[in-house]
Amino acid sequence: MKDTHSSINEQEQIHLDTDHICELVAVLLPVAEDIHSHNQTSLQTTEQKQALQELIAVLHDLHPADVATLLESLPLEERMLVWKLAAPAEDGEVLLEVSDPVRETLIENMEQRELLAAVDDLDADELAELAPDLPRQVVYEALSSRDEEERAQIAAAMSFEDDQVGALMDFELVSIRADVTCEVVLRYLRRFDRLPDHTDKIFVVDEEDVLQGVLPIRSLLVSDPESLVSDVMADDVVTFRPEDDVEEAAAAFERYDLVTAPVIDDNRKLIGRITIDEMVDVIREESETDMLNMAGLREEEDLFAPVVDSVKNRWIWLAVNLCTAFIASRVIGMFEHSIEKIVALATLMPIVAGIGGNSGNQTITMIVRAMTSGQISNSQAKRLLRKEEGVALVNGLIWGSVMGIVSYFLYHSIGIGLVMVAAMTLNLLLAATVGVLIPVLMQKAGRDPALGSSVLITAVTDSGGFFIFLGLATLFLL
Amino acid sequence: MKDTHSSINEQEQIHLDTDHICELVAVLLPVAEDIHSHNQTSLQTTEQKQALQELIAVLHDLHPADVATLLESLPLEERMLVWKLAAPAEDGEVLLEVSDPVRETLIENMEQRELLAAVDDLDADELAELAPDLPRQVVYEALSSRDEEERAQIAAAMSFEDDQVGALMDFELVSIRADVTCEVVLRYLRRFDRLPDHTDKIFVVDEEDVLQGVLPIRSLLVSDPESLVSDVMADDVVTFRPEDDVEEAAAAFERYDLVTAPVIDDNRKLIGRITIDEMVDVIREESETDMLNMAGLREEEDLFAPVVDSVKNRWIWLAVNLCTAFIASRVIGMFEHSIEKIVALATLMPIVAGIGGNSGNQTITMIVRAMTSGQISNSQAKRLLRKEEGVALVNGLIWGSVMGIVSYFLYHSIGIGLVMVAAMTLNLLLAATVGVLIPVLMQKAGRDPALGSSVLITAVTDSGGFFIFLGLATLFLL
Predict the structure, then answer these.
(1) What is the DSSP string of A256-316?
(2) Which of A332-346, B404-418, B442-456 shows the lowest mean pLDDT across its residues?
(3) Helix boundaries (H) for A412-452
(4) Cα B227 to Cα B286: distance, rounded to the nearest angstrom
(5) Is the pLDDT of residue A6 over 60?
(6) Is A325–B10 a contact, with Cβ atoms under 8 angstroms apart?
């Protein structure tokens, strides 16, 4: 290490070494009971003592977000041991960071006293975020230790849905009047012990708290101290209402490169602000939800959830899939007579269905992605449909011919080869059409276009593929 | 509108109305040639004249990011018309915002003079980002108009891969020495016309430009003007190296709620900084790439790409799918004899394959998602496997029994019913096992676990499902 500038503590290098932590936990797991009951005298081996010391030290150095990731990646027993040993002062932060299902497991295993201590340091908006998951008695006691203003803020934040800006706003505001000089603002700021996180602008309000504009810190720093705030402030402000959709707000943050933005009510009164860190979480979750939804998972799942919980999270789409598979099976059933005569049909039909499903999934994924980034308007749907059908036609003719020739060599029947070409082309066209229509119609109906889209498109291309292939074969080969 | 505070221009309300713009474009498309050649006298109807005026006005008000989204959502001809009419001063910004394939279409249709004008206002790091897509002559001329320092910065930025921090860093730095007072810093800042975007901290360096720490603006504002920078600055700094992976950097931004961070070289010399807006783009792209990769799309596609380009983007995974479908077909071929005897097998086999595919996709999606957020370490893989197999066993027994009973009623054969239960359970177990193993092994091999995972798992559950079901039927029913 040639680093002579030891003044900089390389925080980046304290990264999460889950594997090492797991080893330590494995050593301690046999004595977990004793650790839980603070009866550490029973740690018999030196190995256990060392492991405990090291684990506590490692956990102490971790950022709450890292502790959260660690907890999510551990099975239940191990998770509880680590949770017990993690720095209690940061418990509230960690609870905010973990996913909902994991948070439940943690809260279930905490005593009321521990929970109260954990939420004690949280801001009003953070407490509001946790409150629905906390035992009622804990919420009650936590509220009673806050002042009137904070209680009102918590109540306000809790009155909004999870997907509304109001639920994510915080109340740490610095606001000033427009008729003072920058010098006065600087002096005013100096009276704070610390400014709220992410403060990149100060909100300019009138005596009724009505938003007049914002004073970016960047402008404040380069302005003449004698100039008035009203001359320096920006009045083209991106503002949000508490009932705005968080995903749209996140898109606006991304688009306009915002760090913070004011939240105002119908009378333009300043009531809170939202910050980029919350928006980054929204963006991350939005894409993840799309991915989970496409695969037919209802919601984020605790990796180590009990089997029963996982079954519950997944059964709906499995049931839907089973119904669609049953329909596909009945479609084949219609042609049992044909299959009896030419058993090769049973062998080839999954190829037709399979390529349709794959191609349809490509189309639908592309469309869903484009919709998420707001790129698809209704007038485009027809154009897109034509284009996707063009792609399907080309792919169908190319790959259909390949498989047609292969089938001909396998079964020495020109008829089977030609039916294969036709069926594959038609099923790819069907896949393209439905791959565009499903998300477009879902969106028109106000539903999430990603929801189970993969299961739906596969259903159509399976039943459709079997019907087209077996139907053509019955018409031309029997 | 009760809004009496007209001083605030509600920027949020100028949102993108693609449908309306498309209407305007449709009116103008017949005279697009004349508009391109600036021969606007030929606009015959008043409708056309009005549409042109309105379109120009609307485009002028749009943020470059909105123009980019608009361009991405338009077919080629319409896109070129809008591009021609968009505010040329912001052309460079728009080029930075659009996706790679769309950027190519735009650059292809610009004259050298227009391109030079577009990149003229860009910062060094932005020009470096565009350079690989620009004609060589344009890059050469653009470089020759920059000074020595900027040329060096551009060369540095271009020497890194797209997925390295060095490619995303910018060079707009404000740095100070540790031995001055906050008052001096404030006076120094006041000499800037404007501070770099997102400036939330000032970098503290020694005379060799070696990073000593950072002075958060928030601390600067609340400190006593007389105190020394060295007393106020933070020395536990999250730093990056230019060769760091951008996805890891983005995760660090998310975890530590950063807005900007310094990039340093091996000697801890400050060479640039990265900002949250770039990291948000990385996070968005990362999730999108996972989604596209899972579905077997090679890369982001221009929605209205020519059919040929789309075919190229999708053919590999279609070809892979065709091979796997062919293998599945050959597996069935092994049992043609059995199917000839009991044609019901052909009808029921897709159900076994289908539910395996669906369930396997649920598992693999969950694992890939957890890997992306760094939640899976090697020591967890075995535990996860056991859990997923537990879920599969429960689902297999439940849904297998349901379909077993249905099959019994359809074909009046207890044997078929029992084979169905067994085959579905076994195929779900296979799906769970492979759904965990594919991404774990991909990651161990240093590959992206999302890559074509959906195609792979479906391949296994199809061939496996057919083999298990037809094999069991041949053993026990014939």
Answers:
(1) TT-SEEEEE-TT-BEEEEEEHHHHHHHHHHHHHHHHHHHHT--S---TT--HHHHHHHHHH
(2) B442-456
(3) 414-444
(4) 43
(5) no
(6) no
Between chain A and chain B, the number of residue pairs with CB atoms below 8 A apart is 429
Distance from CA of A194 to the nearest CA of B (A): 7
Residue type, A125: D
> What one-character DSSP code corresponds to residue B261?
E
Residue range B229-249, pLDDT digits in tens: 999 999 888 999 999 999 889
Strand, coil or helix: B298: coil
3-state secondary structure of A32: helix
CA distance A140 to chain B (A): 30
Strands ordered across the beta sheet of A201-205: A175-176, A201-205, A211-216
**pLDDT band (50, 70, 90) for residue A4:** very low
Search chain A and give the residue with CA nearest B334. A347
For residues A279-298, give the mean pLDDT.
82
Span between the terminal Cα atoms of chain A, in Å: 80
Alpha helix (H) residue ranges in B29-160:
32-36, 46-61, 64-72, 76-85, 91-97, 100-108, 112-120, 124-130, 136-144, 148-158
The helix (H) or strand (E) run that includes residue A216 is strand A211-216
- List phi, psi (to 5°) of A273: -145, 155
* Measured distance CA(A407)–CA(A418) in Å, rounded: 9
Which residue is it, tokens 């017990």?
A84
Closest-CA distance of chain B to residue A245, Å: 13
Q: What percent of chain A has pLDDT over 90?
A: 46
**Cβ atoms of residues A391 and A432 within 8 Å:** yes
Q: Contact at 8 Å (CB) between A470 and A345?
A: yes
* Closest by CA position to B458, among listed A201, A132, A358, A275: A358
Greater model confidence, B443 or A394: A394
Of residues B7, B222, B144, B150, the one with CA closest to residue A194: B222
Rounded to the nearest angstrom, the gap between the alpha carbon of residue A212 and the centroid of all alpha carbons in its chain is 35
The pLDDT of residue B431 is 96
Whether B350 sits inside 8 A of A353 (CB atoms) is yes
Residues of A with Cβ-Cβ distance to B390 under 8 angstroms: 307
Q: CA A152, A154, A159, A165: dihedral to nearest 10 degrees?
A: 110
Does residue A391 sit in helix, strand or coil? helix
Query: Pick from A326, A376, A466: which is nearest to B73 by CB?
Result: A376
pLDDT digits (tens, 9 = 90+) for B74-129: 888 889 889 988 877 788 889 998 888 899 889 988 888 889 988 888 888 889 88
Q: What distance in Å separates residue B427's CA from the closest CA in chain A?
A: 14
pLDDT digits (tens, 9 = 90+) for B157-208: 888 988 899 999 999 889 999 999 999 999 999 999 989 989 999 999 999 9
At residue A335, the pLDDT reads: 96
Quote the CA–CA distance of B45 and A197 in Å, as a whole number: 56
What is the ipTM, given to two decimal places?
A: 0.81
For chain A, list the domains and their CATH numbers.
Answer: 14-162 (1.25.60.10), 175-295 (3.10.580.10), 307-477 (1.10.357.20)
pLDDT at B37: 72
- Which pair of structure tokens corresponds to residue B42? 């030929």
- Residue in chain B closest to A283 (alpha carbons) equals B284
Task: Provide mean pLDDT across the span A183-207.
Answer: 93
- Which residue on chain A is closest to B296 by alpha carbon? A362
Chain B contacts of A455, Cβ < 8 Å?
Answer: 358
Q: Give the SS3 label for residue A181.
A: strand
Nearest to residue A424, comparing CAs of A351, A346, A360, A475?
Answer: A351
